Structures are given as C-alpha cells and as structure tokens.
Amino acid sequence: MMRLFHISDLHFGLEDRAALQWFSGCVRRERPAAVLITGDLTMRARSREFAAACDWIETLDVPVTVEVGNHDLPYFNPFARFLWPYRRFRRIKQLVERELDFPGLAIVPLKTTARAQWRLDWSKGRVTPRALDKTLAAIDALPPGTTTLVTAHHPLVEAGTKGRALTRGGENALCELAARNVAAVLTGHVHDAFDLWKETLAGPIRMIGAGTLSQRVRSTPPSFNQIDVSRRGLNVTVRNLADASTPMMQISDIPPDALPPREAGEPVAPIGAVPPVDPPVH
Predict the structure, then answer these.
(1) Strand arrangement, sheet containing 233-240
(2) Max CA separation in the chain (angstroms)
(3) Residue ranges per domain, the chain?
(4) pLDDT digits (tens, 9 = 90+) for 233-267
(5) Could you read off the pLDDT of 89-108 as tens digits, one per residue?
(6) 39: phi > 0 → left, psi -120 to 50 → alpha, else beta; which?
(7) For the structural domain made of 2-251, what CATH number should be given?
(8) How far apart are CA 62 and CA 107, in angstroms?
C-alpha cells in the first residue's frame, strides 16, 4: 500500500497556522510517499505570501507536486499577470505541475487556471485543448497498467459544494480521462471535501476534492485527504482537527444544475453519482 496526502487552498496571507502545524506534524511522523497540493498557495499572490508558502513547503521533506490556483496569479498587477504569471513560483519552480512517478503509480498534472478568459470571472476553471493534450500525452506515455491520478486546481464539473468552479472544457476533459482509465481526478478550489463518481460517455470516473488548510472555511473545518493506494483501489480518509468522520466531511452528490455553459463541440454526458464501488485499478 502507498499513502499520499492531498491538500489544497493553503491561502497564505489568511492561512490557518494551527492547521498547517498539525499537517506538518502528520507528514513528519507518518512520512507519506508524497504530498499533492492542488493550488491556491496564497491569498493575493503577494511576494510575502509566496515566501511564506515556499518556506512551509520546503519543510515537508517528502516528494511534493504543486498545482497553480487562481489565487496564485498576480492579483494587483495586470502586466505581471499577463507577462510573468508564474514568476513568484521561482523558488519551487521544480515542483510546479510536476509529474510524480512511483512503481505502478503516477500523478499527472492538468492545468485549469487561466490568466484571462472570455467571461467576467477569471477565478473559474478552464481546461484548454493545449493543457488537456499535454496531460493526455503524459498519461499515454506511462507503462501499461499504471494507476494514474490526475491533479488539478478546479473540479472539472460541479460537486454540490458551496463554492463553484464552473470549469469550461471540464466535461470533455473528464471524458478523455475516463477513456484512459484514470483512477481519480484530485482537485481543490471549493474548500470542502468530496469523493464522487461522475458518469461520462467513456464510462465512470472518480472525482476527489480536498478541503482547505486556511481560515477561509465554508461548510467544513480545515482538513486534508489521506489517500491509500492498493491493489483493491483507492481509500480516502478526510482528516481534520474537529475529528469529524469522513462521511460527515464530504459532499454527497453531483447536482444536475451546476454545469458551466457548454462550449461548442463539447459532448454532453448524463450527470449523477455512480454507486461507490471501485472499478478495476489502472
């Protein structure tokens, strides 16, 4: 069995120091195979927020991969947002959108943030054809039989959470990932945990969301996902300082009315949770 810790939405600048200290202690004592961070390291992408986030990440002392969240793009400087959007990641550049490979297991990134979009709210998700092609190429290059997890910041479709992602291109991306037998898509952004199955034209695919380790809680207290990977599949435990049970921490359904506007050429698939029975591991 291999154990992974999945965290998201640290929001340095409005971080929960007690939650971060607790998580660091869990890493130090339990030594997971990797820590997967699905975006929003900072609150407003300020230099001091990135410095604090990088200081903290560098103490973890295990393999780490980091996704870029919408809060991590320059907020107050439009020139930096368009010309140098990732410059403040330079201290941990090697961790950003980093593929992690273990015997029989791979973690592959999928970019869902955009420096600009053809809609007013640029905080929402978008999967561009270029980003999807890059992820699919990485998956297709893996040895046959590899269990594959995809990490992204935004949920690719809505998961019934108070926060919404409204990810354009997400429905099509899920279908392509399901066709490649991806074991699960791991995301953040909405600050509440979930573990759901989404039906696509290529079959069902699992969506796993992490809560937040910041003060910006929504429906649930600060938490992280412990993901145990074995031949039987994935087992997710939502660990939290409130000692609430995993079912109490997770959103329970995919709503039928929370999809983003469909883009031209994007396939339509039925929405609904599939019974929680693990399909064969890939």
Answers:
(1) 64-66, 34-37, 2-7, 223-230, 233-240
(2) 49
(3) 2-251
(4) 999 999 999 999 999 999 877 666 544 444 444 33
(5) 888 999 999 999 999 999 99
(6) left
(7) 3.60.21.10
(8) 15
